[in-house]
Amino acid sequence: MAEAHQAVGFRPSLTSDGAEVELSAPVLQEIYLSGLRSWKRHLSRFWNDFLTGVFPASPLSWLFLFSAIQLAWFLQLDPSLGLMEKIKELLPDWGGQHHRLRGVLAAALFASCLWGALIFTLHVALRLLLSYHGWLLEPHGAMSSPTKTWLALVRIFSGRKTMLFSYQRSLPRQPVPSVQDTVRKYLESVRPILSDEDFDWTSVLAQEFLRLQASLLQWYLQLKSWWASNYVSDWWEEFVYLRSRHSLMVNSNYYMMDFLYVTPTPVQAARAGNAVHALLLYRHRLNRQEILPTLLMGMRPLCSAQYEKIFNTTRIPGIQKDHIRHLRDSRHVAVFHRGRFFRVGTHSQSGLLSPRALEQQFQRILDDPSPACPQEEHLAALTAAPRDVWAQVRSSLKVQAEDALEAVEGAAFFVSLDSEPAGLTREDPAASLDAYARALLAGRGHDRWFDKSFTLIVFSNGKLGLSVEHSWADCPISGHMWEFTLATECFQLGYSADGHCKGHPDPSLPQPQRLYWHLPEKVRSDSGASSPSGSSAPPFLVPQDRGQFCLTYESTMTRLFLEGRTETVRSCTREACNFVRAMEDKEKTEPQRRALFRLAVEKHQSLLKAAMSGQGVDRHLFALYIVSQFLHLRSPFLDQVHSEQWQLATSQIPVQQIHLFDVHNYPDYVSSGGGFGPADDHGYGVSYIFMGDDTITFHISSKKSSTKTDSHRLGQHIEDALLDVASLFQEGQRLKPRCGGLQEEDLGHRCGSLPCHTRGSRAPTKSTNF
């Protein structure tokens, strides 16, 4: 979600003095190290490989095969065609009394070799099947005979019982697109936003690049694609995220919201207890691989590698680049309340603490009257500071406050018990949603530990939210966890009539451990200096239209491939621009506008499918640029590509577990999605989610410091545009927006969710949440 900002900002971090030293390494060495890191990751997953590496077979299948061979041998049949006799000859001769043992060992070795060969064949067959993308290019709702045959074969080779990481060793590697196709698609994408003169100049640079440099850079990428798991993902993580020296707050984090219209309990400690318990239940299922792998359109498995770092993970700052620290397990969470830090154990000798016991621990923290120590209240602001600054301060902090720092960085995740309420209010819905989103994205700048993989935020009125650091995984991963958490804490765990967690407190539990920081003078001065800039988070409003087209970033996933992450859909196409102009042209008829709309949609779908199938533009150009930097080979074309400013960054939050929510009978019990900061100082960040079948929620962000942007105004433009487009297909009947059961005139146009009605049913709509 927030990757657009990082993608824009990676180039300056690449050319800093420290980065130049790093990039002086030979490119072949870097490719070798990429492959080495890939193989180390495979070896580190040994236990997973033991459990699921033989997928789609099972360890019991070996026993069945061995038994069948033994039975055949007993019946004086030789299924090995003499191979077992040759194996017996190679085994040591332990004497006549052990002749039977040599036969059993020979049968076991032959069974193991045959079993391994069969497993390898199944893996290769499944990988070849999963490399087919013809199904993705077919029209929606249609399935050709080849695709039906392909789907049947995938189901046969996949076996019956799949676990989260079952498909990992069968996923194909992300292909390196043709460099000629990539350049052609790039030029097509910028044509609508460039003048004739600028486009001609860009075309000249592109042709020069193809003639002089492209083939060499492409050769290195092909080499890396053969050797490493993914030709771009590790570089994307390193250069776009970990080498960025900007603050994580707003630039690299994003947020996810609670239910918009309901709060299951107003008791803060109870909501925290159920939510933490639900999150740890998710972790338990994750560790046991009981979470089913995600199937795109119910057919094609996606890569699950990013799930590994959801919990027990911290981004550690460094001078030149950060690194991600992931622990195998953690039995506590770190809690922040009124400037104080606590360590709360999550397990007892009998296992995971009950929700009621966790509520008791959080209530003890809320009732603790002790004040924060000097500078402790603003300590977390350092995690929102520029990364080099935080890295230097952390080195001092690690020496003099090692235990406290380890308790926070080694926690399963971070919990912030805020002292203020949040969420949608009837009195002022627009302002209340602005404040809610701002609190989730930035808080006060010093009440979130931005380095943690995610922070669970619990407000004083029981409202929840999530702040997520972006480097370790992309939004669908945290979104999957968040859907499970909301559904579990509300529908399965539930609350008693008085709003508390169900069950009974456990008075025998020790008090939460208060963390004390012995801060050196350097840390005190730096945390105090960081606090004002951290606490003055960029305010977010809702946007305005500028009357011109701009470069537009829309993210999609490439998890069809092993360790794939994201790709950019350049959605400001010539077809989209033609449709927009037709809507502004009063001489155009509605049939003409509908035809142009369909052309724009078809073009967008083709770009989306190409990006998902590894044939996008931006990740390929990014990887080519990285290789050029390693080779110290300057390319004016690549320099221009990576100097572009994305004034509009968009992202959709997918709903992945619809079965957890009853959107028809309980439409208010769905997540309202989340949002992220703008990619450009004078641009917008727009996130949207389809809430059921009849509602779209938009989260629109921009910087208040910019005189060119206004989020509320853009929200109104989006609403008007949706109504205008929908009217083309309503036979003259206008959509009727309303806001969460309240009349439109009561709330104006800046409302939380605007379901639109037509023909007696509910059609897609919008909500502006900033």
TrEMBL record:
Pfam families: Carn_acyltransf, CPT_N. One of its GO terms (biological process) is carnitine metabolic process. The keyword Ligase does not apply. It is a multi-pass membrane protein. It catalyses: S-hexadecanoyl-L-cysteinyl-[protein] + H2O = L-cysteinyl-[protein] + hexadecanoate + H(+). The chain crosses the membrane at residues 50-75, 104-126. It is found in: Cell projection, Axon; Cell projection, Dendrite; Endoplasmic reticulum membrane. The active site is at H470. GO terms for cellular component: axon; dendrite; endoplasmic reticulum membrane; mitochondrion. Residues 1-47 form the Carnitine O-palmitoyltransferase N-terminal domain. Residues 175-526, 545-719 form the Choline/carnitine acyltransferase domain. GO terms for molecular function: carnitine O-palmitoyltransferase activity; palmitoyl-(protein) hydrolase activity. InterPro entries: Carn_acyl_trans, CAT-like_dom_sf, Cho/carn_acyl_trans, Cho/carn_acyl_trans_2, CPT_N. It comes from the Eukaryota. The keyword Coiled coil does not apply. Keywords: Acyltransferase, Cell projection, Endoplasmic reticulum, Fatty acid metabolism, Hydrolase, Lipid metabolism, Membrane, Transferase, Transmembrane, Transmembrane helix. Its EC number is 3.1.2.22. Palmitoyl thioesterase specifically expressed in the endoplasmic reticulum of neurons. Modulates the trafficking of the glutamate receptor, AMPAR, to plasma membrane through depalmitoylation of GRIA1. Also regulates AMPR trafficking through the regulation of SACM1L phosphatidylinositol-3-phosphatase activity by interaction in a malonyl-CoA dependent manner. Binds malonyl-CoA and couples malonyl-CoA to ceramide levels, necessary for proper spine maturation and contributing to systemic energy homeostasis and appetite control. Belongs to the carnitine/choline acetyltransferase family. This is Palmitoyl thioesterase CPT1C.
